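Bug #77: duplicate submission created two jobs. Keeping one. Sequence:
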Amino acid sequence: MNNALNLMGRLLLAALFLPAGLSKLSGFEGTVAYIGSVGLPFASVAAAAAVAVEILGSVALIVGFQTRIAAAVLAVFTLVASVFFHAFWAAAPEQAFMQQLLFFKNVGVMGGLLLLVSSGAGAWSLDAKKEAP
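Kept job's structure:
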C-alpha cells in the first residue's frame, strides 16, 4: 500500500506543477510580464527557469527519477514563488485573504515535497530500479 500511496502523492504533486509550467510556456510573454510586475530582475530568465523547473520537476516526480533532488528543487522554487507572488503581508486588504490562502497552500505543498526529499520515490519508480541489484 505504501508504494501505491507514494506514487499517488508524486502524481498529485506533479498535477500542480505540470499544468502551471505548460501554461507558462504557452503564455511565455505574459509570464515574463507578470514576473517583471513584482520587480524581479531578468524576468525572461526567471520565466524560462520557472518553466524548466515546473515541467522537468513534474516529469521527474511522475517517473520517480532523481526524486529527492527534484522535490528539493520544487520546494525551493515554491518557497521563492510564495514569497514574491503571494506576499499577503504586503497585499491590499481586499486581496490579503486570498494571497494568504495561496501562500499557506504552498506551505502545505512544500511539506509534501519535503516528505519526498526524506523518503524518496518508493519502489514504483526509476530511482528504485536504479538502486536494485
